[in-house]
Specification:
Elements lengths: L1 H22 L16 H17 L2 E5 L5 E5 L11 E6 L14 E3 L7 E2 L7 E2 L15 E3 L8 H19 L8 E6 L13 H4 L3 E7 L4 E3 L4 E10 L15 H11 L16 E8 L4 E10 L2 H22 L2 E10 L3 H4 L3 H13 L5 E2 L7 H7 L6 E3 L11 E3 H19 L1
Helix pairs in contact: 1-3, 1-10, 3-10, 5-6, 8-10
Length: about 425
């Protein structure tokens, strides 16, 4: 028992050390760039991962012109009918919060109290607001200092895949088929799968490591569109504007105010409820654009939400003497539409989670992952937990023990497929 506990402590320390190294590297994407990856800092970090994979003995390690890193853990079973499976994580962090200058803090043997982060007086991780912290008593909780995000989304997933790869390569007695690894850029700006070559990846299915609480297995996501509503007015000198000026800013403001406020908003929806979320505006009197995120778990409802928004916009533009343009850009679709046709992909993941002693938590993703798009590109890809909490926030956190459990699930998953 003492040796087992010692080995467990070493394993937890190893994954924590790796994670701490990774989060201090700035990998924020650049939404204004049309290159892939959108920022050179992502390419450099991806190259670093490729070097680490080569050093630990992974095969076929490549980094393509778009930055994607792909590698193989060769099969250890002699059976020829074991399919290759994939493990995928993204290296970029959310551009909504600073990702440079991350100072990770380890709260050893967390005792259940609120955590006051030293970098900002208002950065307090309160247990009443985040009750999942109660499951972490005695664990080593990791936060940032309160001025940046932590980057557990998705460097926890990156660290877990790297640690699992290292473990499998060092223990060839563990039976498994071919395991393909991919690290991708730009997931946080919706471009993570843009240049992913499913055929070259060569896996029957894959799993993203990009989820939250221990035991989570996510097989359905939002279907998502981006909608841009642009109001065109007429500008003239405000001192002589009576009867002449048509203010696009006022039209856009009236449009946002007219959108449903008690339903179909992020702040008032949960579970399988969708929303229309105005999240950005570009404003002048002559031309004002409102950008909306349109989300629902039933793909057909996206068109219904968009029709509601368009009708409101056209009514306001007509009333105020302006005109309006509507642009809708499809983003991703609910992965369940594909995964329902591949039940073994989901069941094998559930089996692996149970075998590590965890309860399977099947929850919808109120967002999307690379797996949402990859599933529709011919690579069925559910999402596994990585221990991410409060993502895209200064209060983001994870725990070393949760990351170690994710590694256990990866290893067990490879064994289940070999059976």
């Amino acid at each position: 028992m003492r040796d087992k506990l010692s080995n467990n402590a070493i394993r937890i320390s190893s994954i924590l050390d790796r994670f701490l190294r990774y989060v201090t590297v700035d990998t924020t994407p650049d939404e204004s760039s049309r290159a892939t990856p959108s920022s050179e800092r992502q390419r450099l970090f991806l190259a670093r991962l490729a070097g680490e994979l080569s050093a630990m003995g992974a095969a076929d390690v490549t980094q393509d012109v778009h930055g994607y890193v792909i590698a193989t853990i060769p099969a250890t079973t002699s059976r020829g009918d074991v399919p290759a499976i994939g493990l995928i994580a993204h290296v970029d962090t959310s551009p909504e919060m600073p990702g440079a200058g991350v100072t990770p803090l380890i709260h050893r043997s967390y005792d259940g109290r609120d955590l006051v982060l030293p970098g900002a007086p208002d950065a307090v991780l309160r247990v009443d607001d985040h009750p999942e912290l109660r499951e972490q008593i005695g664990n080593d909780v990791v936060t940032a200092s309160g001025t940046t995000l932590l980057g557990a989304d998705d460097k926890a997933g990156v660290a877990e895949i790297m640690s699992a790869a290292e473990h499998l390569l060092a223990n060839p007695q563990i039976p498994h088929g071919p395991v393909r690894i991919a690290f991708t850029p730009d997931e946080e700006i919706g471009r993570g799968a843009d240049h992913f070559d499913v055929g070259r990846f060569g896996a029957a299915c894959a799993y993203t490591l990009d989820g939250g609480e221990c035991g989570e297995l996510e097989v359905e996501s939002f279907s998502a569109d981006a909608m841009t509503v642009t109001f065109h007015g007429f500008n003239t000198h405000p001192g002589y504007a009576k009867g002449k000026m048509v203010n696009a800013i006022r039209m856009a403001s009236a449009f946002v105010s007219a959108l449903p406020a008690q339903v179909l908003t992020p702040e008032r929806s949960e579970g399988h409820e969708g929303f229309m979320h105005p999240h950005a505006m570009s404003t002048t009197v002559e031309r004002t654009s409102v950008r909306l995120l349109v989300r629902d778990f039933v793909t057909a409802r996206l068109a219904e939400h968009e029709a509601t928004a368009e009708a409101l916009a056209r009514e306001i533009a007509s009333r105020d003497g302006g005109r309006v343009e509507i642009q809708v850009e499809p983003q991703y679709r609910n992965m369940r539409e594909v995964l329902d046709d591949h039940p073994q992909v989901v069941e094998n993941a559930a089996t692996a989670i149970r075998r590590t002693g965890l309860e399977v938590r099947m929850r919808p993703i109120r967002g999307g992952t690379d797996g949402s798009r990859l599933s529709f590109m011919g690579l069925p890809t559910p999402n596994l937990f990585a221990g991410e909490h409060n993502i895209h926030s200064r209060l983001e956190w994870t725990s070393a023990q949760d990351m170690a459990r994710a590694v256990d699930v990866i290893v067990e998953l490879c064994k289940v497929w070999a059976e």
